Amino acid sequence: MNDCLFCKIIAGEIPSQKVYETKDVFAFEDTNPVAPTHILIIPKQHLETMLELSEEHRELIGSIHIAANHIARIRGIAENGYRIVTNCGRDANQTVFHIHFHLIGGRPMEWPPG
User: Residue 38 catalytic?
Assistant: First the structure.
């Protein structure tokens, strides 16, 4: 997608603080963090929302969660816990329409989250 913010970050057209990358997944620091650790984990394949996921994306979604575990361990938040948040659609406050997963940790979380 030519106008997708996250596609431009993946392509290196917009700078980011990369923390993890594989052939299918890219992770970088959120520019507006809500916790000491706030990283966005995104597939390199452009998918607008969770609604586009199908059986063919099973391995990709697994790779994203494996990335989250890896990053949480490196950042020292795995033991105390972390949260993975994905917003789907405008009513859920999805603001960038490229599926993304917020890895949030480093402080106690509240419930309900929104």
Answer: no
Q: Provide the whole-model pTM.
A: 0.95
- Neighbouring C-beta atoms of residue 32, cutoff 10 Å: 5
From the list 38, 46, 100, 102, the catalytic residue is 100
All structural domains of the chain: 5-105 (3.30.428.10)
- DSSP sequence for 24-75: SEEEEE-SS-SSSEEEEEEESS---SGGG--GGGHHHHHHHHHHHHHHHHHH
Coil, helix or strand at residue 78: coil
Mean pLDDT along residues 54-75 = 97
